[in-house]
Amino acid sequence: MYDYHVHTSFSKDATMELEEAVQRAIEIGLKEIVFTDHAELNVWNPNDLIIDDIFDEEAYIAALQVAREKYRDKLRIKIGVEMGLQVEEKERIHQLIQSHPFDFVIGSSHTIDRVDLYYRKFFEHRTKEEAYARYFSEILRIVKEVDDFDVYGHLDLVRRYALDEYEEIQLIKADYEVIEEILKVLIEKGKGIEVNTSGYRYGLNMVNPSPEVLKMYHRLGGEVITVGSDAHKKQHLGCRITETYELLKAIGFKYITTFNQRKPSFVKL
């Protein structure tokens, strides 16, 4: 298994220590793991402050380099980041990504209009249709204007948070039309998408993005695709990855993608 989305205690929302994660990865037989702790720039927090929410960059890189050398005979460890993408911060994002030796960068949209979906403020005074339209239209703007990422993470993440806000969370035709445009831009730019297995444990009972979106990506000719557990605790490492490989094979994908120094390679499923 290749787990391409893992958080440690360098992320404020994770409890798993780096050493603990590595030991668990070896225990369950992971072949390769990418640590992708959170980086968000200029985002709102509940104290009405606009802050940078980011790990200690130098300590993070150093710790991963030590772990990579220590366990090189047992596990391939890659240095990654989950970068919150915002058009308004594209220059700072570029500077951050280029100034560190990342192997892999997940681009994500946790934050719209500087507000993390987690805080639910995004959903206030919006119908489900309005919330989804705003979310996907902003991702389309981002993928057109920002380039410092390798794959787009959990593309339909908004559905997870919508579970607590609306009676039903299904995508509608208008959403799929915008998602198709997003996927076309990603493919044209040589970017990929992530299949995130955490949807199973957050109540969606499926991956993010949904199988329908994965089928669309395959139909459009998309090939760059990674799979990650989005683990924040050690018991979630590697969860549902092998069955997600089977899902991808059933859709028609022949490979998953791995990265080294931001360069993709393909592993046959």
UniProtKB/TrEMBL annotation:
NCBIfam families: hisJ_fam. This is Histidinol-phosphatase. Pathway: Amino-acid biosynthesis; L-histidine biosynthesis; L-histidine from 5-phospho-alpha-D-ribose 1-diphosphate: step 8/9. Transmembrane segments: none annotated. Its EC number is 3.1.3.15. One of its GO terms (molecular function) is histidinol-phosphatase activity. SUPFAM superfamilies: PHP domain-like. Residues 2-87 form the Polymerase/histidinol phosphatase N-terminal domain. It comes from Geosporobacter ferrireducens. It comes from the Bacteria. It catalyses: L-histidinol phosphate + H2O = L-histidinol + phosphate. Belongs to the PHP hydrolase family. HisK subfamily. One of its GO terms (biological process) is L-histidine biosynthetic process. Keywords: Amino-acid biosynthesis, Histidine biosynthesis, Hydrolase. Signal peptide: none annotated. GO terms for cellular component: cytoplasm. Gene3D superfamilies: Metal-dependent hydrolases. InterPro entries: Histidinol_P_phosphatase_HisJ (IPR010140), PHP_dom (IPR004013), Pol/His_phosphatase_N (IPR003141), Pol/histidinol_Pase-like (IPR016195). It is an enzyme of class 3 (hydrolase).
